[in-house]
Design a protein that fits this description.
Pfam family, one: Hexapep_2
Number of helices: 1
CATH superfamily: Hexapeptide repeat proteins
Number of domains: 1
Helix content: 10-25%
Oligomer: single chain
CATH architecture: 3 Solenoid
Organism: Lacimicrobium alkaliphilum
Shape: globular
InterPro entries: Hexapep, LbH_gamma_CA-like, Transf_Hexapept/Carb_Anhydrase, Trimer_LpxA-like_sf
Distance between the termini: 17 Å
Structural class: mainly beta
Protein name: Gamma carbonic anhydrase family protein
Number of strands: 19
Radius of gyration: 15 Å
Strand content: 35-45%
Protein backbone atom coordinates (compact mmCIF):
# COMPACT_ATOMS: atom_id res chain seq x y z
CA UNK A 1 0.00 0.00 0.00
CA UNK A 2 1.52 3.23 -1.14
CA UNK A 3 1.23 6.92 -0.50
CA UNK A 4 0.30 9.14 -3.46
CA UNK A 5 0.15 12.93 -3.10
CA UNK A 6 -0.07 12.60 0.65
CA UNK A 7 -2.88 10.04 0.64
CA UNK A 8 -2.50 6.42 1.63
CA UNK A 9 -5.07 3.63 1.54
CA UNK A 10 -7.14 3.28 4.71
CA UNK A 11 -8.22 -0.18 5.83
CA UNK A 12 -11.14 -1.02 8.07
CA UNK A 13 -10.96 -3.71 10.73
CA UNK A 14 -9.82 -7.21 9.77
CA UNK A 15 -9.03 -6.48 6.11
CA UNK A 16 -6.71 -8.62 4.01
CA UNK A 17 -4.53 -7.19 1.24
CA UNK A 18 -2.32 -9.72 -0.53
CA UNK A 19 1.38 -8.84 -0.69
CA UNK A 20 1.31 -8.92 -4.50
CA UNK A 21 -1.55 -6.40 -4.77
CA UNK A 22 -0.75 -2.77 -5.58
CA UNK A 23 -3.06 -0.20 -4.01
CA UNK A 24 -2.10 3.48 -4.12
CA UNK A 25 -3.63 6.76 -3.12
CA UNK A 26 -7.09 7.73 -1.92
CA UNK A 27 -8.61 4.31 -1.29
CA UNK A 28 -10.59 2.99 1.65
CA UNK A 29 -11.76 -0.52 2.45
CA UNK A 30 -14.61 -1.32 4.82
CA UNK A 31 -14.34 -3.87 7.60
CA UNK A 32 -13.73 -7.51 6.63
CA UNK A 33 -12.97 -6.72 2.97
CA UNK A 34 -10.23 -8.41 0.99
CA UNK A 35 -7.91 -7.63 -1.92
CA UNK A 36 -6.46 -10.77 -3.51
CA UNK A 37 -3.28 -11.46 -5.52
CA UNK A 38 -2.24 -9.16 -8.36
CA UNK A 39 -5.04 -6.63 -7.91
CA UNK A 40 -4.06 -3.14 -9.08
CA UNK A 41 -6.02 -0.24 -7.54
CA UNK A 42 -5.13 3.39 -8.22
CA UNK A 43 -6.87 6.14 -6.32
CA UNK A 44 -4.73 8.80 -7.93
CA UNK A 45 -6.91 11.18 -9.99
CA UNK A 46 -10.06 10.46 -7.96
CA UNK A 47 -11.00 8.21 -5.03
CA UNK A 48 -11.99 4.57 -4.50
CA UNK A 49 -14.36 3.45 -1.72
CA UNK A 50 -14.95 -0.23 -1.05
CA UNK A 51 -17.63 -1.33 1.43
CA UNK A 52 -17.70 -4.00 4.09
CA UNK A 53 -17.27 -7.74 3.42
CA UNK A 54 -16.41 -7.05 -0.22
CA UNK A 55 -13.80 -9.11 -2.04
CA UNK A 56 -11.76 -8.07 -5.05
CA UNK A 57 -10.32 -11.17 -6.66
CA UNK A 58 -7.07 -11.95 -8.43
CA UNK A 59 -5.89 -9.79 -11.32
CA UNK A 60 -8.68 -7.20 -11.09
CA UNK A 61 -7.97 -3.57 -12.00
CA UNK A 62 -9.70 -0.77 -10.09
CA UNK A 63 -9.40 2.79 -11.40
CA UNK A 64 -11.12 6.15 -11.58
CA UNK A 65 -11.77 9.03 -13.97
CA UNK A 66 -10.21 12.43 -13.45
CA UNK A 67 -12.15 15.64 -13.00
CA UNK A 68 -12.48 17.81 -16.11
CA UNK A 69 -14.37 20.82 -17.44
CA UNK A 70 -16.94 18.46 -18.99
CA UNK A 71 -17.16 16.31 -15.85
CA UNK A 72 -16.32 18.44 -12.79
CA UNK A 73 -16.53 15.52 -10.32
CA UNK A 74 -14.92 12.96 -12.60
CA UNK A 75 -15.94 9.43 -11.75
CA UNK A 76 -14.77 7.92 -8.47
CA UNK A 77 -15.08 4.16 -8.02
CA UNK A 78 -17.71 3.24 -5.41
CA UNK A 79 -18.28 -0.39 -4.42
CA UNK A 80 -20.88 -1.32 -1.79
CA UNK A 81 -21.11 -4.01 0.87
CA UNK A 82 -21.11 -7.79 0.27
CA UNK A 83 -19.83 -7.48 -3.30
CA UNK A 84 -17.87 -10.27 -4.99
CA UNK A 85 -15.69 -9.06 -7.87
CA UNK A 86 -14.46 -12.08 -9.80
CA UNK A 87 -11.01 -12.73 -11.22
CA UNK A 88 -9.53 -10.37 -13.82
CA UNK A 89 -12.31 -7.77 -13.88
CA UNK A 90 -11.94 -4.10 -14.72
CA UNK A 91 -13.97 -1.55 -12.78
CA UNK A 92 -13.41 2.01 -13.98
CA UNK A 93 -15.13 5.02 -12.43
CA UNK A 94 -18.43 3.23 -11.81
CA UNK A 95 -20.79 2.73 -8.88
CA UNK A 96 -21.75 -0.71 -7.56
CA UNK A 97 -24.43 -1.14 -4.90
CA UNK A 98 -24.68 -3.97 -2.37
CA UNK A 99 -24.85 -7.75 -2.83
CA UNK A 100 -23.49 -7.88 -6.37
CA UNK A 101 -21.53 -10.60 -8.11
CA UNK A 102 -19.30 -9.41 -10.96
CA UNK A 103 -18.36 -12.43 -13.07
CA UNK A 104 -14.81 -13.19 -14.15
CA UNK A 105 -13.40 -10.87 -16.80
CA UNK A 106 -16.30 -8.41 -16.72
CA UNK A 107 -15.67 -4.75 -17.52
CA UNK A 108 -17.75 -1.95 -16.00
CA UNK A 109 -17.02 1.48 -17.43
CA UNK A 110 -17.22 5.16 -16.42
CA UNK A 111 -20.46 6.40 -14.95
CA UNK A 112 -22.17 3.00 -15.02
CA UNK A 113 -24.41 2.26 -12.04
CA UNK A 114 -25.15 -1.23 -10.79
CA UNK A 115 -28.04 -1.29 -8.33
CA UNK A 116 -28.26 -3.73 -5.38
CA UNK A 117 -28.75 -7.49 -5.88
CA UNK A 118 -27.34 -7.98 -9.38
CA UNK A 119 -25.42 -10.79 -11.11
CA UNK A 120 -23.12 -9.71 -13.95
CA UNK A 121 -22.08 -12.63 -16.14
CA UNK A 122 -18.48 -13.52 -16.92
CA UNK A 123 -17.02 -11.43 -19.72
CA UNK A 124 -19.87 -8.89 -19.72
CA UNK A 125 -19.19 -5.32 -20.82
CA UNK A 126 -21.21 -2.63 -19.06
CA UNK A 127 -20.86 0.50 -21.21
CA UNK A 128 -20.38 4.04 -19.88
CA UNK A 129 -23.41 5.53 -18.16
CA UNK A 130 -25.56 2.37 -18.24
CA UNK A 131 -27.69 1.47 -15.22
CA UNK A 132 -28.25 -2.18 -14.29
CA UNK A 133 -31.50 -2.58 -12.36
CA UNK A 134 -31.77 -4.50 -9.12
CA UNK A 135 -32.79 -8.16 -9.16
CA UNK A 136 -31.53 -9.27 -12.59
CA UNK A 137 -28.84 -11.25 -14.35
CA UNK A 138 -26.96 -9.27 -17.01
CA UNK A 139 -24.85 -10.93 -19.70
CA UNK A 140 -23.14 -10.07 -22.96
CA UNK A 141 -21.21 -7.32 -24.63
CA UNK A 142 -22.77 -4.87 -24.27
CA UNK A 143 -24.46 -6.23 -21.15
CA UNK A 144 -28.21 -6.69 -21.38
CA UNK A 145 -30.84 -7.84 -18.92
CA UNK A 146 -31.21 -11.61 -19.27
CA UNK A 147 -33.76 -12.62 -16.61
CA UNK A 148 -34.87 -12.01 -13.02
CA UNK A 149 -32.69 -13.60 -10.36
CA UNK A 150 -34.02 -16.69 -8.63
CA UNK A 151 -34.27 -16.75 -4.84
CA UNK A 152 -31.33 -19.15 -4.59
CA UNK A 153 -29.20 -16.70 -6.59
CA UNK A 154 -30.26 -13.77 -4.42
CA UNK A 155 -29.31 -15.81 -1.34
CA UNK A 156 -25.96 -16.69 -2.93
CA UNK A 157 -25.01 -13.02 -3.32
CA UNK A 158 -24.72 -12.67 0.47
CA UNK A 159 -23.26 -16.17 0.90
CA UNK A 160 -20.46 -15.45 -1.58
CA UNK A 161 -19.40 -12.49 0.55
CA UNK A 162 -19.54 -14.63 3.70
CA UNK A 163 -17.40 -17.30 2.01
CA UNK A 164 -14.71 -14.73 1.22
CA UNK A 165 -14.78 -13.28 4.75
CA UNK A 166 -14.08 -16.79 6.03
CA UNK A 167 -11.28 -17.32 3.50
CA UNK A 168 -9.80 -13.91 4.35
CA UNK A 169 -9.88 -14.81 8.05
CA UNK A 170 -8.05 -18.04 7.27
CA UNK A 171 -5.36 -16.12 5.39
CA UNK A 172 -5.01 -13.59 8.21
CA UNK A 173 -4.59 -16.41 10.74
CA UNK A 174 -1.56 -17.61 8.75
CA UNK A 175 0.27 -14.27 9.09
Amino acid sequence: MDLYKGKAPVLGKNCYVDDSAVIKGDISLGDDSSIWPLVAARGDVNFIRIGERTNIQDGTVLHVTRKSDNNPDGHPLLIGDDVTVGHKCMLHGCKLGNRILVGMGAIIMDGAIVEDDVFIGAGALVPPGKTLQSGYLYVGSPASQSRPLRQAELDFLKQSAVNYVELKDDYLSQL
